[in-house]
């Protein structure tokens, strides 16, 4: 299979810090006359000669018509990689070979002029992508239709919202007849409908044999759009391979790192009247080991110890699971008789088990409370307790496939019937 | 070119008189020069009406000055397209120069009106004007390549250029004819290609006579050297623009 992009031992070094000024030059000459070591002083004077290795010895190939997701933390070298491929900048050493016309979406609408109308900017932007006036004439209606800006096309772009601006920028770029499209996390702007259409457009380009390199922090989109994933870490290639596998490994590691650093202390500013308080909360797995990372279908146990300062009758202990992005998943409480003692006056602990947890791969946070028997007034409220993440395929829940999107894994079955079927709820 | 259009539109949009500002600059300067040099200093204009004499030189001068002035900053101004997209970067300073064509031709149109007002006819030597215009463009583009590229690395270049442009006007025979320059300074003026250009424009459209061929050939060689070396330099520095800008 012919290669679209080939990077051969590519290294990119940037000089950090400010540029040298005449004061530095005089300063270093004075130092030299005094016979002082120069390097010590140039460091104290603002680190002029610091270098940053944005990329180190990167090798990788992208075959034609492939979709490659580029993932990694901020500063891992993802954008530098795209800039090298798009020839915005040049490698310090090594070779970058690119077959075909590259269109880079490092910033949408970068060449647009706010004083010009949308129509004029389509011609301006298209020209920067190497299109001739006639090319643009031919594509104009499609560009405008895709961006959905027909109403404002003769309005100066300074009156556009940032989402509209980006939409027109994206539309011009993908209609510029590229062989290789580089996308740098630019779909974060624009509404959900446009994001979906943009992803569809990128997928369409791939089916037409174009190569797409796609930087994103959204693993869901990366996995849906790309067959391969390149994982960058500190300027090096950490892993390059099948999208699902690499994205999964990346997410597990990010979750573990983020969760391992969380504070074990319960937040100091808490709600509630304080007659009885939680003193510690711990998340453990089925075997009782402390854990922050679970697979769908695993058993998760929350253990919380408490201390009552005075006797409290029929307290209710609440444990809520909150999806960090979308909100409450469930609130559980010791509301059934026998869940908790009728009266507490000292220290103790409760344990809440979630067997075969049907949560999807996401991040979660616990909210804990102790309330009166009516669950109206709270003695204690920990609104941001410990966090945990669900990641990977795990054992699955009742054999559910891993591919469905959503918040929880519900058991489901489909049935199929041929012929006329009575429809109960007419749409 | 689209970038040129962007530049021109950007410059004159939201302005009531729009393109009229393009001719205001040489016209106002001509008026002041006429007052100071012709009326007060009694400068010799070789028998031509002084306003016409000055204007014929001021139009190419302002084309040069404005192009170099904004061209020097152009790569910095268009930083976001330099760092975000790839295309031949020469286009950016080139678009600055091209965007001054419209000013040049607007002022040239006014010059034709002035000629008829002063009763000066158009002669056969005016066919030389396009030749000098070509030399003017080459010199302006070459210099703009050099200053814009250097300014990416050291922003000191811009203030130096701005000051140099101020002084350059007086060291070029714009307000006065080259003929009044004493022989011991003459070499200095000959090395300045703008001398040949403004004198060339004058001989073509004011006096209707042949240009000073020696002067013209010397200047054309200097211009060619400047243009070629500046283009080569620009191409070499191009690789590092996105990193240091």
Across the major sheet of chain A, the strand order is 5-6-7-3-8-9
What percent of the residues of chain B sit in helical stretches (DSSP H or I)? over 70%
According to DSSP, the number of beta strands of chain B is: 0
Bulk shape of chain A? globular
The counted number of beta strands of chain A is: 20
> Topology as H/E string of chain B?
HHHHHHHHHHHH
Mean pLDDT of chain A: 82
Low-confidence parts of chain A? 38-46, 395-403
Largest sheet of chain B: none
The Rg value of chain B, from CA coordinates, equals: 18 Å
> Roughly what fraction of the amino acids of chain A lie in strands?
25-35%
- Helix count of chain B equals 12
Terminal residue distance of chain A: 49 Å
Mean pLDDT of chain B: 89
Protein described:
- The complex is a heterodimer of chains A (427) and B (245).
- By secondary structure, chain A is α/β, with parallel strands linked by helices.
- Chain A is 25% helix and 30% strand.
- Chain A has helices at 22-34, 38-44, 78-85, 118-128, 133-147, 162-174, 192-207, 219-225, 243-260; strands spanning 3-15, 51-63, 67-71, 93-98, 102-105, 180-184, 211-215, 228-233, 236-242, 276-285, 293-294, 300-308, 312-313, 316-323, 327-333, 343-344, 347-354, 363-371, 378-382, 387-390.
- In chain A, strand 18 and strand 19 form a beta hairpin.
- In chain A, helix 4 crosses helix 6 and helix 5 crosses helix 6.
- Chain A is globular, with a radius of gyration of 29 Å.
- Chain A starts with a strand and ends in a 37-residue tail after the last strand.
- The relative contact order of chain A is 0.11.
- Chain B is mainly alpha-helical and 245 residues long.
- Chain B is globular.
- Chain B starts with a helix and ends with a helix.
